[in-house]
C-alpha cells in the first residue's frame, strides 16, 4: 500500500527560538510524500550534544526557529509508490543525515557520511537545501511529531529494538561502531575508552560485545563503579601516575570521546607499538601532540565521524543481536523539560543520554 501527498505535512515540534537555545513550541512543514519517501510518526528523539552546539549557534550561525535532533525513532505511517524497503506499520529510524549527493566516490562506496558532493551530506537539521526537500529552505530535526525521508536514508528498526533507549544508537552507537569496524578492531584486543559519557558508555558496550578487553580511562574515581557495571574489565585513573605506568603499552586502540581541551599526549604511552587512538570528540583546541610523539613507535591518531547508511543498519542489527541499547533518562516533550535536559547535558549530569518521549507528550 502506498501513500502520496500533494501538500506539505504540518508538524508540531520544539524549536530553539534564538541563540540561547531556549525551547519554544512551534509548527513546521514537512515536504509532501514523494515516490521514494517514507513518512514517519516520531515516537522518540534522543538529545545529542551536537543539538546544543548547533542550537546555540556555537558551530556557526543558524536560522531560527530551529528544530534539532538526529536520533529519531518512529513508525512508518505513509510510503511513496516506489518504496520497496518499508511498509506502513514498520519501525524506522533516522540518524544524522537525510540525503547526500549519491554520486561522489564516498556515496557510491556507502560512506554517505563523508559525501564530497556540493554541500556534503544533508544534515538532519540546520542544512540549507531546496524548498522542495525542506519547506522553508532549512532541514528541521527530530524534536517533532513527523518527518519525511527518502527510504534509502532510513534505518529499519527490529521490533525488539523499538524502545526509547535505541534512539541514541543512531548517533552515539554508530560513532563507536563505524571506527571499530573500519580500523580493524577484533576479538581479543584491548581497547581503552577515554571519556565515559554518551559516546564512551556505548563504546564500552560495543567493544565488549565484539570480544575485546575494555579499559576505561577516567580522571574521576566516582565513575569506577559505573564503568564496571557497563562491562569494563578494569579502570585506570589518569590522575594516578602509578596506574598509568602499570598500563603502559597495553592497549591496541584508544577510543577518545573527550570533547573538551585535554592532554591527548598523556594517552599515547598506553598504546602498544603500532597502536591507534581514535578521536571522535570535536575539540577545536591544540591537543598537545607532535610528530615526535608518534614516530618512534609508529602510533596513529585518526578521526571518525558517524557512519554510512549501510553501516548504520549493520550497527542496529549488531546491537539487536547483542541486546545493546543506551542508558537513558526519558523526558517529556515540553520546552521546560528539554531546557533542563540541555542544562544537565552541558554539566555532564546524565547517565548517559536523554531521550524525548515525543509521541506521548508533544502538544
TrEMBL record:
CDD domains: CAD1
KW Zinc (keyword) present: yes
Keywords: Metal-binding, Oxidoreductase, Zinc
The protein's name: Alcohol dehydrogenase GroES domain protein
UniProt cross-references to InterPro entries, sorted A to Z: ADH-like_C, ADH-like_N, CAD-like, ER, GroES-like_sf, NAD(P)-bd_dom_sf
Residues of the Enoyl reductase (ER) domain: 21-362
SUPFAM superfamilies: GroES-like (SSF50129), NAD(P)-binding Rossmann-fold domains (SSF51735)
MF terms (GO), sorted A to Z: metal ion binding; oxidoreductase activity, acting on the CH-OH group of donors, NAD or NADP as acceptor
Organism (species): Fragilariopsis cylindrus CCMP1102
Cofactor(s) the protein needs: Zn(2+)
Amino acid at each position: 500500500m502506498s501513500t502520496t501527498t500533494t501538500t506539505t505535512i504540518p508538524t508540531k515540534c520544539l524549536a530553539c527560538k534564538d541563540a540561547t537555545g531556549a525551547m519554544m513550541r512551534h509548527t513546521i512543514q514537512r515536504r509532501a510524500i514523494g515516490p521514494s519517501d517514507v513518512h514517519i510518526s516520531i515516537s522518540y528523539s534522543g538529545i545529542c550534544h551536537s543539538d546544543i552546539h548547533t542550537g546555540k549557534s556555537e558551530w556557526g550561525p543558524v536560522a531560527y526557529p530551529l528544530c534539532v535532533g538526529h536520533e529519531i525513532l518512529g513508525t512508518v505511517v505513509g510510503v511513496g509508490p516506489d518504496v520497496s524497503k518499508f511498509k506502513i506499520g514498520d519501525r524506522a529510524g533516522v540518524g544524522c543525515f537525510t540525503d547526500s549527493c549519491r554520486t561522489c566516490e564516498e556515496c557510491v562506496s556507502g560512506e554517505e557520511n563523508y559525501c564530497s558532493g556540493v554541500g556534503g551530506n544533508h544534515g538532519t537539521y540546520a542544512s540549507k537545501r531546496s524548498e522542495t526537500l525542506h519547506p522553508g529552505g532549512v532541514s528541521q530535526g527530530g524534536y517533532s511529531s513527523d518527518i519525511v525521508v527518502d527510504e534509502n536514508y532510513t534505518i529499519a528498526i527490529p521490533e525488539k529494538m523499538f524502545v526509547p533507549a535505541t534512539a541514541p544508537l543512531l548517533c552515539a552507537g554508530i560513532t563507536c561502531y563505524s571506527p571499530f569496524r573500519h580500523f580493524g578492531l577484533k576479538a581479543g584486543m584491548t581497547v581503552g575508552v577515554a571519556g565515559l559519557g554518551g559516546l564512551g558508555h556505548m563504546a564500552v558496550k560495543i567493544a565488549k560485545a565484539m570480544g575485546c578487553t575494555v579499559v576505561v580511562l577516567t580522571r574521576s574515581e566516582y565513575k569506577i563503579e559505573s564503568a564496571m557495571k557497563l562491562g569494563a574489565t578494569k579502570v585506570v585513573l589518569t590522575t594516578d601516575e602509578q596506574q598509568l605506568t602499570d598500563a603502559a603499552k597495553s592497549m591496541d586502540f584508544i577510543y577518545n570521546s573527550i570533547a573538551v581541551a585535554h592532554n591527548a599526549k598523556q594517552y599515547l604511552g598506553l598504546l602498544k607499538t603500532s597502536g591507534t587512538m581514535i578521536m571522535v570528540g570535536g575539540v577545536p583546541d591544540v591537543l598537545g601532540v607532535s610528530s615526535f610523539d608518534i614516530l618512534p613507535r609508529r602510533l596513529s591518531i585518526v578521526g571518525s565521524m558517524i557512519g554510512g547508511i549501510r553501516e548504520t543498519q549493520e550497527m542496529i542489527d549488531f546491537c539487536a543481536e547483542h541486546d545493546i541499547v543506551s542508558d537513558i533518562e526519558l523526558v517529556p516533550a515540553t520546552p521546560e523539560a528539554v531546557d533542563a535536559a540541555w542544562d544537565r547535558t552541558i554539566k555532564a549530569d546524565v547517565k548517559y543520554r536523554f531521550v524525548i518521549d515525543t509521541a506521548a507528550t508533544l502538544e
